Amino acid sequence: MALAGTAIGDTREIARGLRDGDVAVVQMLVEEYQGRLVRYLVYVLGRREDVDDLVQETWLRVMERGKSYDGRSRFEPWLFTVARHLAIDLVRRRKDLSLDAEDEGGPVVAAPVSQELSPFAMAARTEEAERLAGALAGLQGIYREALVLRFLEEMSLQEIAAVVGAPVPTVAARIYRGLAALRPQMEEKQ
Predict the structure, then answer these.
(1) What's the whole-model pTM score?
(2) Strands (E), 52-190
(3) pLDDT attached to residue 139
(4) What pLDDT sits at residue 134?
(5) Taking a C-beta distance cutoff of 8 angstroms, is the pair 57, 81 a contact?
(6) Residue range 94-104, pLDDT digits in tens
(7) Phi and psi (nearest 5°) for 101?
(8) Buried-exposed string 81-119: b where 16+ CB fall within 10 A, e elsewhere
(9) Which end of the chain is more exposed for a tag (fewer CB within 10 A), N or C?
(10) Are 58 and 84 within 8 A, CB to CB?
(11) So what's the pLDDT on residue 98?
């Protein structure tokens, strides 16, 4: 089943497919967003551990609660909101995690879930991408998340605000502060 419109299809078609429990639509969404979802969760948690379980749980939640996606806005913010809530639940259950945690092993670069390299994993092979990943890993979680959503996921300020549950001015301030904190790290690593 091919969805018309954008790369994955029209948001109304996605909403209809989720509402009808169409497995083909869910499979297409997984193919399209799996790598991005992994990357987002790695950056939100600041580590690779637990990400595969969260990704799987996110897709289960999408299938269970797909009826709540109405198709009036892009799918990505809704998906990342689901994933973010699951990450917060994980952090609450586990005392050793924090959304502000830094990875102790160096740059946080998502390993591909399948044998095929994700677009992010291919880009991370370049020196610049590795420097950026290392610099992002050194930021507080709220800034890292805002920057990842804005620049890697290309979401608008309004979409980011919906994902993180904060007002648009707060999101803009996080991006500004995150960029200000990132700049010296990037200059230092040149």
Answers:
(1) 0.75
(2) none
(3) 87
(4) 79
(5) no
(6) 766 555 543 33
(7) -70, 150
(8) ebbbebbeebbeeeeebebebebeeebbbbebbeeeebe
(9) C
(10) no
(11) 57
Q: What's the rounded Cα separation, in Å, for the pair 50 and 88?
A: 12
| CA pair distance 46, 98, nearest whole angstrom | 8
Q: At a CB cut-off of 8 Å and minimum separation 6, what does 169 contact?
A: none
Q: Read off the tokens for 145.
A: 């998340």
pLDDT the model gives residue 116: 53
Tokens of residue 129, six digits: 């991408």
pLDDT along the chain (190 residues), means of 10: 50 93 93 94 87 95 93 94 94 69 37 46 59 81 92 94 96 95 78
Q: Choose among 95, 81, 71, 83: nearest CA to 9.
A: 71
Host H or E run for residue 180: helix 168-188
Tens of pLDDT, residues 122-147:
555 556 667 777 788 888 889 999 99
- CA-nearest of 86, 108, 103, 116 to 152 is 108
Phi, psi of 111 (to 5 degrees): -80, 145
DSSP H helix total and E strand total for the chain: 9, 0
Query: Could you tell me if 129 and 123 are in contact, meaning their C-beta atoms sit under 8 angstroms apart?
Result: yes
C-alpha–C-alpha distance, residues 64 and 121, integer Å: 30
Contacting residues for 182 by C-beta, under 8 A, at least 6 apart: 135, 136, 139, 143, 147
Q: What is the pLDDT of residue 161?
A: 96
Mind listing the domains of the chain with CATH numbers? 11-188 (1.10.1740.10)
